[in-house]
Amino acid sequence: MSSVHLRNIVKTYPGGTSPATDDVSMHIPDGEFMVLLGPSGCGKTTLLRMVAGLELPDEGQIVIGERDVTYLPPKERNLSMVFQSYAVFPHRKVRHNIGFGLAMARTPAEEIRRKVDWAADLLQLRPYLDRFPSQLSGGQRQRVAVARAIVVDADVLLMDEPLSNLDALLRLSFRAELKKLVEDLGTTTLYVTHDQAEALSLGNRVSVMREGKVVQCDDPIAVYDWPDTRFVGGFLGSPPMNFLVGRVARGSAAGAPVNVDLGGQALPGPQALQGYDGREVHLGVRAEAIVVSHERTPDSVCAIVRVFEPLGSAVLITAELADQPIKVQAASSFRVESGDTVWLTLPPDRLRWYDAETELALQTT
């Protein structure tokens, strides 16, 4: 096992108008499962490929353990990689696919057999060792790819969207298996995905990327509950975080309660907003944090229902609050129809406030 240090990594492709990765620095301690999350084109796969040695940075340094590997070829980095495609050899049986890396390293035959059996047992592939990939399901083929990666005792395990080609149900079950496997192995892992559910469920930490930069890196709960920017809040969550535009009331005396005007409806705000007297701010709140009622309650705001969607375990309501759309997740027993009036309570401890110009989170505690 080894830690990974990325120091001020810059990569620009020929003809590119902006860097694919822009001054990225990151430390992944021994044994940590780090997830790189972001939309297509944000630079996460480019960063992974530079760690693997498949791309070279224009600037910066990559250190694995105590070794500077920035310009070393892939074979000298002691890494293993699982690709988005299964990348298994169709003409080789499962046992030979799993042991391929060991055979290329001229490992003794008995050790190859032992390690292949170990990986096959770990990934429930023992009954399929003498089958060809064409005789396996997609999930089984991906298990073969993972088994091939773990038998070589690599310092770092790299994974590039390994579950994206699986159907939804298989992806869910294999995700749990993969998490347990990596926890048991304790191998330092760098995992790339655009799937937020994968990122939140798998990673010890999640690095959210945008336009070549890491915009937030923290544990999954913190990234979800305390997004540093509007982009992070809007990218994570299904539905994503709601954002409402409000204006801090003018003329509040020092220490007096702060109110935020949401299109004619007053909402209590934190004292930290006094410095924004008369200015526009953005309020972020998760759909599941909002309490919805048919009756008016203290500090609630009025909204008009536009869409009602039963989801089985819950219902999703799209409403209009002062001409602004807002999504609310409620218990499956809650019933409304389009055009109904509902009252929304926005719990102060679940609200996130953002500067309207910079879209950065405001420190309100």
Tally the structural domains.
2
E-strand count: 20
The low-confidence runs, each spanning 5 or more residues with pLDDT under 50, are: none
Biggest sheet details: 6 strands, mixed
Named CATH topology of the largest domain = Rossmann fold
Helix content percent band: 10-25%
Distance between the termini: 39 Å
What is the CATH domain class of the largest domain?
Alpha Beta
Strand line-up in the sheet with most strands: 6-7-8-3-9-10
Within CATH, the superfamily of the largest domain carries the name P-loop containing nucleotide triphosphate hydrolases
State the secondary-structure class. Answer: alpha+beta
Q: What's the gyration radius in Å?
A: 25 Å
Tell me the number of helical segments per DSSP (H or I, 4 or more residues long): 9
General shape: elongated
Along the chain, the helix and strand elements come as EEEHEEEHHHHEHEHEEHHEEEEEEEEEE
Which CATH architecture of the largest domain?
3-Layer(aba) Sandwich
Name the average pLDDT: 91
Strand content: 25-35%
